[in-house]
Design a protein that fits this description.
Length: 209
């Protein structure tokens, strides 16, 4: 080997460019966990769904649990942003609430094979009993949804859309309960049309306070 070749061989090599898009890979992983649950999703299945090799999976986020926690964070943050956008004024409170429920239904029924329900509720509830990190993320995600409702309900009360005696915190809990009920019932096989009808009645009750 010549001195020039030796020098080139000894020089630090540039890192290989990423062969995957992190957002796309995490979206695919989320859908895999969403369909099969954490326990039902093997690392092989995760590799297949993300179209990545196992070493690449480890290099990107870590083991299966790390991928699941990242998927939880992604879902919770995207859902919170979508909720806040749907509720944002100048749309009326009633229209904003219905937007949230309609977006949720669109998400819950996005799989042609089977209703998915809410990713957090559907996949994390059972894991939360034995995994503190999952439990913390589940609680934080649901609390963020509730906070988005409460912020809009408080603004609605201040703007006269609700009576002065309305309790935004309590109404937010009720609005969240409707959302969670829709999620569970979608997963249980209830028809989308019946769940939308239920959400419309719930919105009417919430706005009558």
């Amino acid at each position: 080997m010549s001195s020039a070749e030796q020098k080139e061989a000894d020089a630090p090599r540039r890192g290989r460019p990423r062969q995957y898009d992190p957002e796309t890979a995490l979206a695919r992983a989320t859908k895999s966990f969403w369909r099969q649950g954490f326990s039902g999703t093997s690392f092989d299945a995760l590799a297949a769904s993300t179209r990545m090799s196992k070493p690449s999976l480890y290099g990107a986020f870590g083991d299966k649990r790390d991928w699941y926690l990242a998927a939880m964070d992604r879902y919770a943050e995207r859902s919170r942003v979508e909720m806040e956008a749907a509720l944002a004024r100048p749309v009326s409170l009633a229209k904003g609430l219905q937007r949230v429920y309609d977006l949720a239904l669109a998400s819950y029924f996005s799989d042609a094979k089977t209703p998915l329900g809410c990713f957090l509720i559907g996949t994390a509830a059972s894991e939360a009993a034995r995994d503190a990190d999952v439990r913390e993320r589940l609680g934080a995600g649901l609390a963020a949804f509730n906070a988005a409702f409460e912020t809009r309900l408080r603004a609605a009360r201040d703007a006269g859309e609700l009576t002065r005696g309305a309790d935004p915190a309590l109404l937010a809990e009720m609005a969240s309960a409707v959302l969670f009920s829709i999620a569970l019932r979608a997963r249980a096989g209830h028809a989308r049309a019946s769940l939308r009808a239920f959400s419309r009645k719930a919105v009417a009750l919430l706005c009558a306070s």
